[in-house]
UniProtKB/TrEMBL annotation, chains A, B:
CDD domains: APP_MetAP (cd01066). Residues 16-160 form the Creatinase N-terminal domain. This is M24 family metallopeptidase. PANTHER family: AMINOPEPTIDASE, XAA-PRO AMINOPEPTIDASE P-RELATED. Residues 168-376 form the Peptidase M24 domain. InterPro entries: Creatin/AminoP/Spt16_N, Creatinase/aminopeptidase-like, Creatinase_N, Pept_M24, Peptidase_M24B.
Length: 394, 394
């Protein structure tokens, strides 16, 4: 196609940039260099699997943002970003994985050219795509600038979703329903796990009607039995066995927007302790959704769930959710607020979380989760329509 | 399953560690902290989609390595690593994405406990999973230690593959043949690209016979027409159009080992300039394979290809290949040697490269690539069996 197919209106991008600039002003920053691929896409619409080389967005206090990356990805930037071509910059391939040169030398030259040699520049110190080396080189190249840690500055602006974004997440939820239903329908004793995962990918990427499926930021997690006590194991070619629970941690994705959804399938007759945990978990999720109201805090959701668990005599530690939306590998969380006892983020309408009160016990794991939208009033809305229970197949 | 299913023999892990320690000794290091997930898996067999939180391997000059990560992933470490449980450490969930605490504080305590408080410790400064912030915190926590840049120290040890590894890559190549054949067979005018990608994923993950498919470190790249002039665009829901070339940059994966393979499909009658480029590219690949002999250098492969291109009057810049094998997202390259004019790595038997002399032109892209094994004598061996040509479907 020869014209751009932008995911959002210009008004939406303008709103995002204005919001980000307000946060920059508050932090006393002249400029930010954004390396998080999700933040890059959120600001500019850049979309490509090129984050494995150095790239990012330069955003000053006026004018359009500038996307900067490898020369061959500049071409992709021209295809996908909303800005005009003169705001999309490429560096030569001799910088790529060179031991003599570093792409940050090229970036520093652009920053100097744009008057940021002595500026206060925000960088995302805690990001997969801003390496320790990148920071060291950029610091050396800009001796008169002040590099300030602006980790999550843009991420926090993403916390409340616009109507356009919520529409995308709702579409992703349609795909999530389909992939979870596929997993439940297909699971049976003797089926190789990789064959099941193949069907999960197929269901997710074909999508639902004109809602075409994008790649998830996390590979399908589908561990069974004792492997399900560990949270992040991926599949192998072993057949599914009787008398084991398998949890499915999956997400449909529409144009990089996620709506994670987890359910657990038991092949056989579940043990009593798993049934009791199921009961507690589902009652706890109801309590959590009811506490997930505008004006309450993230910790209130966690407390509501934990209180129910305590009543049932079940111990659980750790985080039980995080905001989601636009994402690139390796994580679909937004890495700002957390649903946990110590987090006091105030809930506002338009926030979307993966509420994830999974139970990983000594010999099995039970995941039943929801992508939830904080509404104007009343409890949070689960965006996927899927029965909330342990699915049992005899 | 209750017993460990290790991918390799203990002798293989011992060999890897001895080789790594020799490089550490040469660099004057007492210890390395390894964050690259591929390096972690290569040393310990750790396997899980958990690299989005801080984790790594501590390797001193004696004793088994220690895997360190989030508490819930410690469970996964016990399921997958070859070491005994006392060499697998977990930190509490309150360190995860906290703004008050950082996991590197926990790591530093372990390093001090193990006598590395004043040691020379190698860290991977240029790695996706060693952030600028991680380095700053670790430096602060270990004021008497010397943190030395050991980027790619382990990666370089991976360059020559063992027979066990080559057997895995050959299995991956069987899957690569299947996924490329699927793409070629399915491509047709009107087919939505996401539906094609769904079939590609399905083919790759079902695998071939008992060679079950693992997830690729890079999502399928399948751009068409003008989008194929940009190297790293992913799919959308648009139908395939007549008179466009689509390149397929794909890899089968067996237990994290890759064998990338690319082919291009044209729907219609290709223009003359594409046909001329095809001829040059194929002749150039032959020349490259012939130059890819033990004792020659990486630049000799690049030069052989470029000479053929020059003869045909085609200009091309940039890298045309890299070593491959074990990999995790976001990249399947090993990030050491490159097939390019300025790289002088001497080729040795057992090295495996993705030889990738793609042609990205002004209005189309043409990718025909091979995973190649450097042999004892003679030209390199292409590990996948797939005709080397532009596939034309009228």
């Amino acid at each position: 196609m020869s014209t751009k197919d932008l995911p959002f209106s210009q008004g939406e991008f303008d709103r995002r940039i204005a919001k980000t600039r307000a946060a920059m002003a508050e932090a006393g920053l002249d400029c930010i260099f954004v390396t998080d691929p999700s933040n890059q896409a959120w600001l500019t619409a850049y979309d490509g699997w090129s984050f494995y080389v150095h790239q990012g967005v330069i955003l000053g206090l006026d004018g359009p943002p500038v996307w900067w990356g490898r020369y061959m990805d500049m071409i992709g930037g021209r295809r996908t970003c909303w800005m005009s071509d003169d705001h999309i910059l490429g560096y030569g391939d001799h910088y790529v994985q060179s031991i003599e040169r570093h792409p940050m030398q090229d970036l520093a030259a652009h920053l100097r050219d744009r008057g940021f040699a002595k500026a206060r520049i925000g960088v995302e110190m805690e990001n997969y795509y801003y390496s320790a080396k990148a920071h060291a080189v950029l610091s050396d190249e800009l001796p008169d600038a002040t590099l300030v840690d602006a980790t999550a500055l843009v991420n926090w602006q993403r916390l409340i979703k616009s109507d356009e974004e919520i529409a995308f997440i709702r579409k992703a939820a349609r795909i999530s329903e389909k992939v979870i239903q596929t997993a439940i329908d297909r699971a049976e004793v003797g089926l190789r796990k990789n064959d099941l995962v193949a069907d999960i990918y197929h269901a997710g990427i074909t999508g639902v009607d004109d809602i075409w499926g994008d790649y998830p930021a996390i590979a399908p997690l589908t561990p069974s039995g004792i492997d399900a006590t560990a949270a992040h194991l991926t599949w192998n070619g072993d057949p599914m066995r009787p008398n084991e629970a398998t949890f499915f941690e999956l997400s449909g994705v529409y144009r990089r927007y996620h709506a994670p959804l987890c359910r657990t399938v038991y092949l056989g007759t579940p043990p009593d302790d798993m049934r009791r945990a199921e009961e507690a978990q589902i009652e706890g999720i109801d309590a959590g959704l009811n506490a997930a109201r505008a004006g309450n805090r993230t910790c209130d959701i966690a407390r509501a769930f934990m209180d129910v668990l305590a009543k049932h005599g079940i111990k659980r530690e750790g985080r039980m959710g995080y905001p989601i939306g636009l994402s690139y590998p390796p994580d679909w969380g937004e890495r700002t607020a957390s649903i946990r006892l110590e987090d006091t983020t105030v809930l506002e309408p338009g926030m979307v979380f993966h509420f994830m009160p999974a139970l990983w016990m000594d010999s099995w794991g039970l995941e039943t989760t929801e992508t939830i939208l904080i509404t104007e009033d009343g409890p949070a809305q689960a965006l996927a329509d899927m029965p909330r229970k342990l699915f049992v197949k005899d």
